[in-house]
Design goal:
The protein is an alpha/beta fold. Helix content is about 40%, strand content about 15%. An eight-stranded parallel β-barrel has the order 3-4-5-6-7-8-9-10, surrounded by four helices. The protein has a two-stranded antiparallel sheet with strand order 1-2. Bound molecules: NADP nicotinamide-adenine-dinucleotide phosphate.
Length: about 300
């Protein structure tokens, strides 16, 4: 088995691998965003994730069939991994996948968590994160946190988290309410670099998303095409930034994606990064890269120096 670096998810005390798995790529094409993935392939991938020693899987009611596939294929291995999902996402009456709408009312928050538990075939989530970084004002208005605390009291949720982004993440950290923050970060998206440290210093677990910048440094044109249109220009700009920084000159045989993942893992306050993939070869490459740990210190510093002006 690949030996993955491990860490503790902040004050939750949960042991995790620094490489986690983001299960958004299992969502399927319904809703117009994902790719076709058949059940057998998803099952093999999820078991490959656990067999390789990945100890945290992140999903969401918003990710089409993702929760259902996790429930179908690895509910029997539930004690092998930390499971996180989201709340505030729309809940459908018939349990069909929902896409994109959010409602932070107590009723919807509870209905969402209970739907996640049914789909995931588990009796508890290790952490549930408010999706799309709502302001503290929105959460107070709906008394949403009280509902998560009630679910925690009932044992359905172990810890309370936030999928947080600037600017709202500042007040979310200050509130002291959240045990876990999910935060976007990579070499090409460093806006939250300092906020990650602040979240960790406040005692929260840090779950980093976007840790390989959706594969764009090495992406083929069809991968770029697959990106939602509203994000495409941003990712093309990130790829151009990679080139402008002259990072290829520093890699000495390391692949661009190994560099990306190890750069993310080099953040001293990262606890885990939930890299998404539906491709077993990419998963294997990510495992191999993560097992090598952080970048050499001199390469890390030089890459940061070049990126700062690129
Ligand atoms: N809280 C939120 O609002 C939010 C938003 C977005 C995502 N998330 C969570 O964060 C997770 C990851 O986020 P993300 O998908 O935005 O970013 P990401 O992990 O940086 O990128 C995933 C993409 O990168 C590609 N990829 C992965 N490894 C690769 C490799 N070795 N070589 C080439 N391409 C590679 C994958 O394509 P292939 O399938 O082709 O490998 C996939 O399309 C999601 O799964 C989800 O759990 C949360």
């Amino acid at each position: 088995m690949t030996s993955l670096p491990a860490s503790t998810l902040g004050r939750t005390g949960l042991g995790v691998s620094k490489l986690g798995y983001g299960a958004m790529e299992l969502r399927g094409p319904a809703g117009g965003r994902g790719r076709e993935i058949d059940d057998a392939t998803a099952g093999r991938l999820l078991n490959q994730v656990l067999d390789a020693g990945i100890r945290l899987i992140d999903t969401s009611p918003d990710y089409g069939r993702s929760e259902e596939l996790i429930g179908t294929h690895i509910a029997g291995r539930r004690d092998e991994f930390v499971l996180t999902s989201k709340c505030g996402c729309a809940v459908s009456e018939d349990g069909a996948p929902t896409f994109g709408e959010h409602d932070f009312s107590r009723h919807n928050v509870r209905a969402g968590v209970e739907q996640s538990l049914r789909r995931l075939r588990t009796d508890h989530l290790d952490a549930v994160q408010f999706h799309i970084s709502p302001s503290m004002g929105t959460l107070h208005e709906h008394d949403s946190i009280a509902e998560l605390l009630a679910l925690k009291e009932e044992g359905k949720v172990r810890f309370i988290g936030m999928s947080g982004t600037l600017p709202n993440i500042e007040e979310q950290i200050e509130s002291g309410v959240f045990d876990v923050f999910q935060i976007p970060y990579s070499a090409l998206e460093r806006e939250h670099e300092e906020v990650i440290t602040r979240a960790a210093r406040a005692g929260a677990g840090t779950i980093i998303r976007g840790g390989v910048a959706r594969g764009v440094p090495s992406a083929r044109p069809e991968t770029i095409e697959r990106l939602p249109e509203r994000f495409r220009a941003t990712y093309v700009a990130r790829r151009e930034r990679f080139d402008r920084a002259g990072l290829d000159d520093l890699l000495e045989g390391m692949s661009q994606m190994e560099f990306m993942l190890r750069f993310t893992i080099s953040h001293p306050d990262l606890h885990t990064t939930i890299v998404g993939t539906a491709n077993p070869d990419h998963l294997a490459a990510n495992l191999e890269a993560a097992a090598k740990g952080p970048l050499p210190a001199d390469l890390y510093e030089e890459a940061k120096r070049r990126l700062a002006t690129a």
